[in-house]
Fold:
Amino acid sequence: MGIGSSGGITGVSMQNRISILRRQKGVSLTALAKAAGTTKAQIQKLERGDRRLSLDWMDRIAQAMNVKVSDLLPADVIACQHGPEDREILEIVSQLPPEDRVILVRIATGLLDTMRSRSSFGDVPAPEEAETASLTAVAPPIATRRRRGA
Structure:
């Protein structure tokens, strides 16, 4: 392994599923390259693992193929150590539209801020009290929000 001129490690092959997904979707190298704003040669290098698959590349290719970034990697590469509750939360969040994800992040941040501020004053509420207080302070009641197309 050597260091390339850009400072990255060369000679390191990273497994990915770009070629598999591209073929499943019936997309040519040329079409994927055009959609990802690159060349056919770059896509070939990424598929073979000859070029480092950075987060930027993953995002560009995932968007071009209309898949999740995690779909580009083999399951054993993205195996995580999340417990069942964490996986349930991630599954729910993955089904939300982007604007609702932003709201969810605000709610979670508000909850954390509330918990931290109360614990710094020695006033740690019961978990259900903190949740109710944070949710009402950060997000509008769900019943008042309108869904598109509703």
Q: What stands out?
A: The longest helix spans residues 98-120.
